[in-house]
Request: fold
Amino acid sequence: MVLTQILSAVLMMGLDQLVRSRYGALGMLCLCLLAIGIRARNSTCVSVGAVLFLLLMTQA
Reply:
């Protein structure tokens, strides 16, 4: 249990650094929308986050 929590924390920190360096603050906002939507089971929030992140990725 502790090992999975440590691995997930390390993975999230690495993903955070990747998104910050490549996509900036808007990328972090999109990931936050995705995470909040998944946890709250809100399909609108997930869809908006995914579409914004996709648009950001195609622009970069």
Remarks:
- Helices lie at 2-40, 43-59.
- The chain has a mean pLDDT of 84.
